[in-house]
Amino acid sequence: MLKKIFSVTLSTILLLLASFTNVSADSLEPTEYLGELVSIEYFDNGDTFEVYLSDPEDITLTSLLPDSINSTNFITKTKTGYFKNASGGILWTVSIQGTFWYNGTTSECTSYVPSAKSYSTYWTINSVTGTKLGNTASATATAIFLSQPYTKMISISCSPTGVIS
C-alpha cells in the first residue's frame, strides 16, 4: 500500500512538473535593454514570444568590408525572439543578424548570421537554420521542452532607404 501511495504521489509531481514551463529559477531575467519591441505573441499558459530589434552586440559585419566600399550604404542590425515564461524569465532565444546594402532605389541582404541559445536546463536547442532572399534574412530555431518541439522563425528586412523592419 505504501508503495502505491508513493507511486501515485511521484506520478502526480512529475505530471505537474511536465505541465509547467515556469522555471524562473533556471531562466535568465532580463537585466538590460533588449532593443526596440517589435511584436509579442501570447500563449494560454502565460508564456510569451517577444521580438526585439537592436544593434549587434559583437563585431558588425560591415567592419569587414573593404575600405573602397562606401559603408554609409550598409547597415547591420539584429532581430531576436525571446521565448519567456509567465514570470518574464527568458527560456530560450532565436536571433538573426543581417547586414544590408541599400541605395535609395533597392536593397539587398549581403550577409546574415542565425543563432539560438537556451537559458534553461529544461530547454535544449535542437536546430537553428538561416536563409536570405533579396532584402530579407530569416532564422528558424527549434527548442525542445520535455520531448515537445517548439519552432519559431524571425525575419529581418531592409527597405531601399535603409529602414530595418
Total domains: 1
Q: What is the CATH level 1 assignment?
A: Mainly Beta
The number of helical segments is 1
Number of DSSP E strands: 8
Cα-to-Cα separation, first versus last residue: 62 Å
Q: Structural class, from secondary structure content?
A: mainly beta
N-to-C order of helices and strands? HEEEEEEEE
Helix content: 10-25%
Question: What value does the Rg take, in angstroms?
Answer: 20 Å
CATH architecture: Sandwich
Average pLDDT score? 81
Q: How are the strands ordered across the major sheet?
A: 1-2-3-4-5
Low-confidence blocks of residues: 1-28
Write the layout of secondary structure elements.
Layout: H1 2-19, E1 36-42, E2 48-54, E3 74-84, E4 90-102, E5 107-118, E6 123-133, E7 136-145, E8 148-157
Antiparallel strand pairs: 1-2, 2-3, 3-4, 4-5, 6-7, 7-8
Q: What would the keywords be for this entry?
A:
mainly beta; 11% helix; 165 residues; Immunoglobulin-like; 8 strands; three-stranded antiparallel beta sheet
